[in-house]
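[audit] Reproducing an earlier prediction to check determinism. Same input, same settings, fresh worker. If the tokens differ from the archived copy the diff job will pick it up downstream; this log only records the rerun itself.
[audit] input (333 residues):
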Amino acid sequence: MKMSWQLFRHFVQISVLILIVFTSITAWYGAQLARGEIENILNSKPPTFTSWTIQIIDDSYGGSKSRISKTTNDAIQNNDALKNIRSLSGNHWVGEIFGFKIIDPVAGLQALLVKESSKSAVLIALIVPIIIALLFGRIFCSWICPAGFLFECVAKVRSFLLPFNIIGKSLKFWRGHKYTLLIVGLIFSGLFSIPILALIYPPAIIARELHNIINSVFPGNLVMQNIISTTQIFSIFSLFIAFLMLFELFISERAWCKYFCFGGAIYSCLGKFRLINVKLDSPKCNSCGDCTKSCPMDLNPMKNEFGMECDNCLVCMSSCTKSALKFNFKGIK
């Protein structure tokens, strides 16, 4: 059961990445459908990867049953395929599920500071993330965030390289940096109406880059079938992700999540009041310290010191051979 929690968590993380790719593909399909170019793509000779993939999506969404023209706006609005696409669109940054919009707290707070945004719509879209954080704390960071999954993989590589003396001891920084970045970023966004945090927020960057890749692999113009260069696929912000990966590999393990992630700062503040967390069952503990050594956030589960930084990844629970760590439901004994 201990390992099954980690297998399940990794399954969720990979599923989120697949979902981001899927919604990016369907968004591209919807754009071509609205422009009336789907028939040309599906009838391309010889069949391409694009036409093969779009054929599957077209059949799944029922696009062939209600093909539309480029000029009829009413037909576009009433098209069943487009309605089906809108039932699941966007990503973890800003998404929509069956008409209900969900927004990342970082995006939501920035939107509330921009004068042109609809405050009521943003507040409604924040309901689900806030409820989840109040229940489970920073669970987004360890279960859903694609950047967290990426940096977790980097940490595995670092652990593999440590015995070879290629990299040194991991440096530690002040955890308050992420709260400082959050406050400064929000003030900047409010003063200049520029979503500065979104530009350097790894989960948002990864979502944008995956969207860019999809729009490069599935070209809208059938004439442009030439090989697309790497510089056309990835933006300059990919360099920031690469820098963070190298920084965490050689200098400070999981540095972004522990010390600098302003999104994690928001979830940590909400997580202070979470109802479900991990708690030490002291009589069962033999003080081996395995849980503390394994904690990605450098917390101290052996002394029941989790605090609001705990992201409920359950790694400590999985490492405990005495089953001394268990779920705790506040208010229920």
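[audit] rerun output stored. Observation attached for the diff report: Residues 91-274 form one domain.
[audit] end
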